[in-house]
Amino acid sequence: xxxxxxxxxxxxxxxxxxxxxxxxxxxxxxxxxxxxxxxxxxxxxxxxxxxxxxxxxxxxxxxxxxxxxxxxxxxxxxxxxxxxxxxxxxxxxxxxxxxxxxx
Length: 103
Hints:
The protein has 103 residues and is mainly α.
């Protein structure tokens, strides 16, 4: 991965109010990632990066998808087991925050 791509992924992971397309892209990744190992998640990230080409000019939903694969891959690096959204502290924190925001 290039330094430019890394910078774009880091920016996509920064706290911000995501657009609906970004939220949808992240949930699609989480569904696809369920049950995958670190190596499988890393391969999925590489596929997204290859398809996107220049990540800086890619659509926000593509950047969100790539960032989510990166985050999940990083999470699984030390985890060793398969990915599960229900045990992902980041996902659970988002769900809790959204629930409180609606109230």
